[in-house]
Design goal:
about 170 residues, alpha+beta
Amino acid sequence: MKNYLTGFLMFGITFSTWAQSSVWNADTLKLSLKDAWNKAEEHSRDIKIKHLEVGISAEEVKDLRAERLPEVQIKGSAEKASNIPIYENGLFSKPSQHEVIHTLYRAGADFYLNLYNGNKLNLQIKEEKILHEISEIKREQTVSDIHYKTAALYLDLQKNINFQKTYKRGY
């Protein structure tokens, strides 16, 4: 037990000496508040989620605008058939052939245009535009919140660095 305690104390003394040496100070990363904001924006999941929500709401507006366009469907098919064997005297006897039409063609077209829907589609587009604007505002607020939290942590870090410098000068 004494060996563990002695080893722990030796590690603590060595670490505190190393932390106060110039190696620790040379290894310090200098970062401005603007750089801290950029890094926070780059690595924030909340901001990434808000960017995706803005993109989704923009696509929903585009989808509703596309509903104004007419819908056109064109279908076509070609079929090839062979004669159908008919076994009149059992499976092991020679079948007779039933003649069929060998080639069939089919074509069709559909056209749909909504002439009037009681201004329902225009109201839905306006609603989606407003929801898109709200999502942009929420994204900007999230960025501002991240900036605020980053600035608070940055200033706290600067305060601690200044306190550490003052403390070192005192001794």
